[in-house]
Amino acid sequence: xxxxxxxxxxxxxxxxxxxxxxxxxxxxxxxxxxxxxxxxxxxxxxxxxxxxxxxxxxxxxxxxxxxxxxxxxxxxxxxxxxxxxxxxxxxxxxxxxxxxxxxxxxxxxxxxxxxxxxxxxxxxxxxxxxxxxxxxxxxxxxxxxxxxxxxxxxxxxxxxxxxxxxxxxxxxxxxxxxxxxxxxxxxxxxxxxxxxxxxxxxxxxxxxxxxxxxxxxxxxxxxxxxxxxxxxxxxxxxxxxxxxxxxxxxxxxxxxxxxxxxxxxxxxxxxxxxxxxxxxxxxxxxxxxxxxxxxxxxxxxxxxxxxxxxxxxxxxxxxxxxxxxxxxxxxxxxxxxxxxxxxxxxxxxxxxxxxxxxxxxxxxxxxxxxxxxxxxxxxxxxxxxxxxxxxxxxxxxxxxxxxxxxxxxxxxxxxxxxxxxxxxxxxxxxxxxxxxx
Amino acid sequence: xxxxxxxxxxxxxxxxxxxxxxxxxxxxxxxxxxxxxxxxxxxxxxxxxxxxxxxxxxxxxxxxxxxxxxxxxxxxxxxxxxxxxxxxxxxxxxxxxxxxxxxxxxxxxxxxxxxxxxxxxxxxxxxxxxxxxxxxxxxxxxxxxxxxxxxxxxxxxxxxxxxxxxxxxxxxxxxxxxxxxxxxxxxxxxxxxxxxxxxxxxxxxxxxxxxxxxxxxxxxxxxxxxxxxxxxxxxxxxxxxxxxxxxxxxxx
Lengths: 437, 252
What we know:
The complex is a heterodimer.
Chain A: H1 15-23, H2 27-50, H3 59-84, H4 92-115, H5 122-147, H6 152-170, H7 195-223, H8 231-253, H9 259-269, H10 286-304, H11 306-316, H12 318-323, H13 328-354, H14 365-375, H15 387-406, H16 411-436
Chain B: E1 9-18, E2 21-31, E3 36-40, H1 47-55, E4 62-67, E5 70-72, H2 77-82, E6 85-88, H3 100-104, H4 119-133, H5 149-162, E7 167-171, H6 179-194, E8 198-202, H7 206-212, E9 215-220, E10 223-229, H8 235-244
Parallel strand pairs in B: 3-8, 3-9, 6-7, 7-8
Antiparallel strand pairs in B: 1-2, 1-4, 4-5, 9-10
Helix pairs in contact in B: 4-5
């Protein structure tokens, strides 16, 4: 896409423009990252000036932020597909709560009867049940929308009430806690992170993947004699990508386990603790790795497969998609099933993080998920949206909330800010798109 | 022209109604290889509806379709494509948010190993065919919403032509075009005809019909008024059929 409109009028080939053109970086992405950094630095400086010390830009806060973003981020990836096809899913929060309750009962009451408490298969079976259940509910919603012609807004508005009600009935409103100990690792926490060495292995794989993608891109372009990016631009992209991965890994490794946990761990493993204590890194949290995995897989699905192409075609022109021989009804069922599957996965993360299943889990999540997708550039008019945008959108939403908690805004004020930011973000996006035309 | 042998397409006794209104009422038409058959009539005469039964967009209530003499079951656009029937819709049926290559291959994407889309190959093929149809076309990497009417039309035409169509349906292909592009479409129709394709052309412009078509079928109120060999009649004869439903002696 051309980026020349984004610099000052009259300057057609300034260094910034040339840089963006050569590297083919999406200017919209840059804008979102800029906004995110602004929020981060803003909250930090607010802390520095008014509270004596900034606590936002610390490894501890950013690590927690990443874990808190995971649940909404996973669902936002699915919501992109739903919104791109001009539908909406208002039921994800309730479905999340319902799946969590079912999984709570399965792992705490049913499976221990057959397998025994603490059996290593419990968490696997439970997670599979949750994801399958989510996918089935999503497929059912999709069937009502596609084959019964009920608007998605109504189907999922009904679902919002129905599934929350079922979640309550399942255990008459009781909270199920604690959950299976392996299962709860999926929600993060000191033991639910992969440590320094594991994190570096992940970082290495990620860097290798980035380099391979750049190299493969060059190779396929060369195969068809298409114009190449200049070599320096490829170098910049490689450095940026790998730099980001390495920087983030340094950050999560800089956050040590709390002293109490270290003492517990040392006692359990007969390690002699010195005066200074042990520095054990958290490293990447498991839910964050799940989110990244989902992000990569969903990006591949939405941009590199027929399924993804049809999603965008349906969003751009439903009639054209139908006339091109795409089975749009079956596609709708599949899209809602994917949304449901990711809701089930998100339910695993959310309930594992709390180490309990409550019937209120996921309340209002649908609004945050939709907001994350929309802030991330998904158009409610359909046909436009990206997975990485939605994940950054989720990060923006979570950053705002975390930041306001840190500087002591109360809940009412938080809602006002989050709501205003949503409207502002969409307005800015509309302005941007008008100018980009 | 003399049409002998098996027709490429025969639509026999087709009827379809919407909410009690007979949009198409027992209409029979046929099409031979290397022939252009014009479909004429007022707005609402049933031309587009009739032809959508062939392209799979609508399902007829009664009647039969024969392709090369064999009975064909066309229930969806996908079925129609499997009989090598391609359609250029009046609305063009393009997904505005996708680029030319994605639209050209929509529903029939080229995939590489692992079932992943081979976008580069699709773009290369698109460049090839656009180079033939519309050499001035340059906007390969932008959504088709950014294209002019003529450019969009050429994408729609390229899509129909690329996949070795045997039967081509064109619904007012020149309605949105300037004189230069209209001429281009006329040349293309002549060339495709030479290659042995059968073309149904829905057209309002009588002069275009006289120039491009071999035969013309006139419809009025869902019924077929008559079919004429374009060489045997005058503009006024056809106009009389369209406006008054009056069948000249040459018609059958």
